[in-house]
Write a structure and sequence with these properties.
Blueprint lengths: L8 E2 L2 E2 L10 E9 L2 E13 L5 E9 L14 H6 L7
Antiparallel strand pairs: 1-3, 2-3, 3-4, 4-5
Length: 89
Amino acid sequence: MSYENKPGSGALFKKEKKNERQPDYSGPYYEQVGDGVVERQIAAWVKKSKKGETYLSLQVSDRFDPKSQKGEDGGTQEARKEFDDDLPF
């Protein structure tokens, strides 16, 4: 029996962090959109509360595609085209 990606489900995998801003865990999340299912990205950071309790801070975002990253500012080529005009200011 193979694993089926069901809407509203996902999986987290432990990641090796290269810096403190990167998540401790990340993985796919499947969201029902209309008649289809969209793969999104879920990320989790292990944090400590002021009371010393350990918890997970979560973020769900569009699926990360490193090929779409252009430049140091993280903007995409498509986003730059939108602002590429000949205004003098």
